[in-house]
Amino acid sequence: MSTFRDRPGSVLERDSGRPASVPHRHVDGGGTTTLITDLPYGPRAAEIAREAVAVALHGATQADLLDDARLIGSELATNAFTSGSPPLVLCVDRRSPTAGGLEVEITVTDGGCSLPGSPSPPVPEEEAESGRGLVIVEALADAWSLTTGTHGTRAWCRLTHRALTSPADTN
Question: Is the pLDDT of residue 154 over 80?
């Protein structure tokens, strides 16, 4: 599978803020579309991640999956910015299984962190204004993982939308 990288935030047109054209996507022969982009190391990482996920899933008819994927991309990017170090990289893989439906994998990597991470998301205090990102990812994703280290951190998740089958298909 080929990958493409470009400048931070380049998935958006600089002047208009709209999604840029498709050159950041790659479609392989197996039905997988991959989008990879560097994210800015700063508060805009979440916004850029949301827009990049929307570009990667352009044309998807599953509105709930698109909403969940955009939120997860935003949360993973925010977590990388607040807990990690540069560079931040977003990868979105979109697959259409032969049985139908849609499978999306979202990965955000960063340059690592000095503190060891927990294998499960910490439960934030009820009155806390932050700290719910990985809890949200865990609630929305079909599968997810977080691997932390001093030289790199990788947060990954999978969202799956199964094709609807009619009663005639089951007979």
Answer: yes
